[in-house]
């Protein structure tokens, strides 16, 4: 396999990992905002229930979505590191080949 192909593969993989990081951080942000909104709604319900005889129930949050996004973020971090190492190795090999030819 030519060195240029290895470099391109590493760059493509790094770009995919970068996009995955952006996706995961956006999902984490959405989940965090949703959790804050749910907490505010729960506080409002508790205040309303305190004024009436109704029992206040907390909303069901979705921590699984947040956890999944955090795991995806870590996976993409490992992907980025692996592809960075591929690029670094291809660069070193190319440098060695240039040194040998000269």
Question: Which descriptors apply to this entry?
Answer:
102 residues; mainly alpha; 2 helices; 0% strand; rod-shaped
Helix and strand string, N-terminal first? HH
Helix content: over 70%
Q: Which term fits the overall shape? A: rod-shaped
Query: What's the end-to-end separation, in Å?
Result: 22 Å
Give the integer mean of the pLDDT values. Answer: 83
Structural class: mainly alpha
- C-alpha-based Rg, rounded: 24 Å
> How many structural domains does the protein architecture include?
1
What does the model show?
There is one protein chain. The protein has about 100 residues and is an all-alpha fold. α1 packs antiparallel against α2. The protein contains 2 helices and no strands. It has helices at about 5-50, 65-100. It has one domain (about 5-95). The radius of gyration is 24 Å and the shape is rod-shaped. Helices cover about 85% and strands about 0% of the residues.
Write the topology of this structure.
Elements: H1 3-51, H2 63-101
Helix pairs in contact: 1-2
Region (Disordered): 32-63
Biased composition (Low complexity): 32-50
Protein name: Excinuclease ATPase subunit
Summarize the structure.
The longest helix is centred in the N-terminal third of the chain and has 49 residues, at 3-51.
